[in-house]
Amino acid sequence: MPAARKVAVIGLDSATPQYMFDRFADDMPVFTALRRNSLWGPMRSVDPPITMPAWSCMMSGRTPGELGVYGFRDRAAHDYGPLKFATSHSIRAPRIWDEMTEAGRPSVVLGVPGTYPPAPIRGAMVSCFLAPNTQAQYTSPPGLADDLHKLTGGYALDVEDFRSPELGRVSQQIFDMSEQRFEVARHLATTQEWDFLSFVDMGPDRLHHGFWKYCDPGHPRHEPGNPHAGLFRDYYRALDRHLGRFLECLPEDTAVLVVSDHGAQPMVGGFFINEWLRKEGLLVLAEEVAGPTPVSAARIDWKRTTAWAEGGYYGRIFLNVEGREPHGTIPAAEYESTRDLVAAALEAVPDDQGRPMGTRALRPGELYPEVNGIAPDLLVYVGNLRWRALATLGMGKGLYTTENDTGPDHANHGDTGIFALSAPGVAPGQAVGLSLYDVAPTLRALLGLPQHGSRRPVA
């Protein structure tokens, strides 16, 4: 693969093959034309397929286990306290822009998850939605924030409270944020010096979580004739127009990669994973909760507890191991057998209709070549990610619900995103077997950076 003079990565968080490649292909003439001239195809995400760490895995070529980051929140110690939010300081492996800085070459990085607080690089960085607000230092150099404020009148880090019943406000903010993100990308592409440019638009992700049941007739809770039924189509048409204007500002020989970190799918419902642990006698409360309570706030009888869980798009089971946790109950010699029993029991749980659920309970040591930080003892894909794992106690709804425990949500993550690479010397056509871990070596080849690791460029 010949090196390109410039490389631009357009990240669309949660963009899914079924929409980008199929359902809305005719509504997206710019992307469809780009795809015809690209090496493209569905791309397998990481395990777990979560925004944090997926973008950092993509830009480093490392697994979540190697990074020691398994989601937005991770254990900081073998205690019973709440999980700690991951930040850019959690990512210790160099990402592509770090490698470019080391080589003395400039980059522009905009909104890529895992970049707050921003790090000084050769070039410019605008950090991600994890920044608390724009009063915090969210750009490097710091003065870039003033430039963005003048350009936008108020830079949008994210959609405020996107899990909200205020559908009109949320949808408008999603459209506005995507338009602004592409506008800022055009501005930086034409005013900054760069050989590598990477930006991420969170709009598709926020749209999917807020509106999937309204737009997908196949969603189990779809409401026919609802006023938001055409929102997905309208958004993807607008996204295509933004893409077209951005591509017009790039030098003609720029290599362009359009990519997503994971896909999305309908959320069938929620499974109260800690309530299941209680039912199985694996989690014991010292005092009954009075209403909805996060597991970290519940009074747990740790001397009688075998396991507890945190939730989200996937579930995390933590075992209470003697000599590891402060009040461990599982003898170290029984760790593997206990974990196997819990995994088998979870995988046997039926859905709310008594049918096989298809849950998968995964072991970190089998997923990753290295396991750093404090990984969950089991990564649980409830219903193979079609059900959300709900950690809240005291909801009073049994084990199953049709809703989320942290606000309205109609989509869960899928394990397959998109990949479309248009670059000099890369033959167009559909590719099979693409992996998110192919991105970093491909970018290194395009940028003329040294390769490391076992993965090789896609072409």
Unreliable segments of 5+ consecutive residues = none
Please identify which CATH superfamily of the largest domain we are dealing with. Alkaline Phosphatase, subunit A
Q: Please, how many domains?
A: 2
**Rg, Cα atoms, Å:** 22 Å
At the first level of CATH, the class of the largest domain is Alpha Beta
Helicity, as a percent range: 25-40%
Proportion of residues in extended strands: 15-25%
CATH architecture call of the largest domain = 3-Layer(aba) Sandwich
Mind summarizing the main beta sheet?
10 strands, mixed
- How would you describe the shape? globular
Number of helices: 13
Structural class: alpha/beta
> What is the CA–CA distance across the termini?
6 Å
Number of strands: 21
Average pLDDT level:
96
Reported by name, the CATH topology of the largest domain is Alkaline Phosphatase, subunit A
Give the secondary structure arrangement, pairings included.
Layout: E1 7-12, H1 17-23, H2 29-36, E2 39-44, H3 51-60, H4 64-67, E3 73-74, E4 84-85, H5 96-102, E5 107-110, E6 123-126, E7 139-140, H6 144-152, H7 167-191, E8 196-201, H8 203-215, H9 231-248, E9 255-259, E10 263-266, E11 269-272, H10 273-279, E12 307-310, E13 315-319, H11 335-347, E14 360-362, H12 364-367, E15 378-381, E16 387-390, E17 400-401, E18 411-414, E19 416-422, E20 429-430, E21 434-435, H13 439-447
Parallel strand pairs: 1-8, 1-9, 2-20, 2-21, 5-6, 5-8, 11-16
Antiparallel strand pairs: 2-19, 3-4, 6-7, 9-19, 10-18, 11-17, 12-13, 13-15, 14-15
Tell me about this structure.
There is one protein chain. This protein is an alpha/beta fold. The chain has two domains: 7-267 and 413-447, 3-Layer(aba) Sandwich (Alkaline Phosphatase, subunit A), CATH 3.40.720; 269-408, no CATH class. Helix content is 29%, strand content 18%. It is built from 13 helices and 21 strands. The strands form five sheets. Strands 1, 2, 5, 6, 7, 8, 9, 19, 20 and 21 form a ten-stranded mixed sheet that branches. Strands 12-13-15-14 form a four-stranded antiparallel sheet. Strands 16-11-17 form a three-stranded mixed sheet. Strand 12 and strand 13 (315-319) form a beta hairpin. Helix 7 (167-191) packs antiparallel against helix 8 and helix 8 (203-215) runs antiparallel to helix 9. The radius of gyration is 22 Å and the shape is globular.
